[in-house]
Design goal:
By secondary structure, the chain is mainly β. It has one helix at 3-21; strands at 24-26, 28-30, 36-38, 57-67, 70-79, 89-97, 100-112, 133-138, 141-148, 157-164, 168-175, 177-182, 188-194, 197-198, 204-206, 209-215, 221-224.
């Protein structure tokens, strides 16, 4: 057999084996009654130097959607000291279920709009709203992916909230940037975990690092574990 052909076959086999051997960790679980089981190692605290609850807010926009038989409304606000960025994103997200507050999250920076905002990539092909990217996990559960503001010098926060017919809760918050999305065969997001850095001559000195978050196929999301 031709040596080049043998090498090509071996390369394909190696890639397949590596893919098969990849380790994925559950990000959360959904119980039979629709309650959400959080894995707290998947949820980092936001960097906050002050008590954000006392910050004056400027009301933003709202968006209505349904998860199974439950009606949800997302309401957004921006802190007044950030109001020059109100066309880019929001500091506060509040989820109302059937008219009652279910969850409120806030951060000192902002979540940016997934298109026509601060995101370097336009994700409008994957969403029906500007605020988050929806991932339908089952007929009665929905994941909402919120993208952080892309500051220089650090990765933004990527926040994932899951809503079911029973409740809504945060399940993921890490410094990651969304790079791309595949919807087949399973919904998969390629995410960047390390920001690339260049020296004074423009030479790459710290390469970017990527991993992925994918739908498990049984109603949850999984994070591909990065090799140490």
């Amino acid at each position: 057999m031709n040596k080049l052909l043998i090498l090509a076959v071996l390369s394909i086999c190696t890639l397949f084996c590596n893919a098969q051997n990849a380790i994925y960790e559950d990000i959360f679980d959904v119980m039979a009654d629709g309650s959400i089981y959080k894995i707290y190692s998947m949820i980092d605290d936001f960097d906050a130097q002050t008590d954000l609850r006392n910050q004056k807010r400027k009301t933003g926009y709202s968006y209505d959607f349904k998860v199974g038989s439950a009606s949800y409304t997302l309401k957004t606000c921006i802190f007044q000291e950030w109001d020059e960025n109100e066309n880019e994103g929001f500091n506060v997200l509040s989820l109302y279920k059937n008219g009652r507050i279910e969850l409120e999250l806030m951060q000192p920076d902002i979540w940016t709009y997934v298109y026509s905002g601060g995101s370097a990539i336009d994700f409008r092909d994957y969403t029906d709203n500007q605020f988050f990217i929806p991932i339908k996990l089952s007929p009665i559960s929905l994941a909402m992916v919120f993208l952080g503001w892309p500051y220089g010098g650090d990765m933004p926060y990527m926040t994932i909230v899951v809503a079911t017919e029973k409740e809504a809760n945060i399940v993921f918050n890490k410094r990651m940037g969304l790079d791309s999305i595949k919807t087949y065969p399973l919904y998969t997001m390629k995410v960047q975990t390390v920001l690339e850095e260049y020296d004074s001559c423009g030479k790459l000195c710290t390469p970017p690092v990527f991993t992925e978050i994918k739908a498990s196929g049984y109603g949850t999301l999984q994070l591909k574990k990065q090799q140490q």
